[in-house]
Write a structure and sequence with these properties.
Elements (H helix, E strand, L loop, with lengths): L1 H33 L6 H13 L3 H18 L6 H20 L8 H24 L6 H13 L3 H18 L6 H20 L18 H7 L1
Helix pairs in contact: 1-4, 1-5, 2-3, 2-7, 3-4, 3-6, 5-8, 6-7
């Protein structure tokens, strides 16, 4: 009985950590949007889609994430409940935060750059929290790992190629590109490494749990 209660407490903590990570990451995204000097490549795409179809940025994020998850699953990438929840709640939290409007807006360049840096920091903390929950990576991270395994190319190169493609598509759809986009593209990895070092977190050491009925018998044996 005590072991069951302990397991329940662990599972509850992981869920709290997961959702807290999503909310922190969504807040970071809105910081970058409200900085008004350009957003991260994926958000350029989300905003472009939202303007083209008349939907919210969060809804656009959910739509893109769903397409990426379908691609991941068809290609044999592992899907966790955290991956699915990321798809749904990251977008919902973006819309909620934008509706509540508690993240400041700015037009001054130095303040805008500061907001982008805050946004990158919050997104790095988000990754620490939700990856550390061990319930699967984000949809876009899964796609990056998929192409890394299929091509054998360095993961940094794969990430850059994917982000350039979504950036170009998002730009032609009307998404905002600017200094914030460059800061995100070249600064995200640096900020993430600093944050992970401060909290002594190594993403490679995390053992994820995946959705079993989406995994073939052979792959289950490999995981085990």
């Amino acid at each position: 009985m005590e072991k069951v209660k302990k397991s329940e407490r662990v599972s509850l903590f992981r869920l709290i950590r997961l959702f807290a990570g999503f909310f922190i990451g969504a807040t970071g995204t809105v910081f970058m949007i409200n900085a008004n000097i350009g957003v991260a490549p994926w958000d350029v795409l989300h905003i472009g889609i939202s303007e083209m179809f008349g939907i919210t940025i969060g809804q656009a994020s959910i739509m893109v994430s769903l397409l990426v998850i379908i691609l991941d699953q068809i290609s044999g990438e592992y899907i966790g409940w955290g991956t699915v929840l990321n798809m749904i709640f990251f977008g919902l939290f973006i819309d909620l935060i934008m509706y509540l409007d508690f993240v400041p807006h700015t037009s001054g360049f130095l303040m805008s750059v500061s907001m982008v840096i805050i946004g990158l920091t919050l997104l790095s903390i988000c990754m620490w929290w939700y990856i550390g929950a061990g319930m699967g990576s984000g949809p876009r991270d899964g796609m990056m790992l998929l192409f890394h395994r299929r091509t054998g190319k360095p993961i940094g190169l794969i990430r850059s190629c994917i982000e350039v493609i979504v950036l170009i598509i998002g730009y032609f759809l009307g998404g905002p590109v600017g200094v914030g986009t460059l800061l995100s593209a070249f600064g995200m990895g640096v900020v993430m490494r600093i944050v992970f070092k401060i909290v002594n977190f190594d993403a490679k050491e995390v053992k994820h749990q995946y959705i079993e009925f989406l995994i073939s018998k052979e792959k289950r044996e490999n995981i085990g």
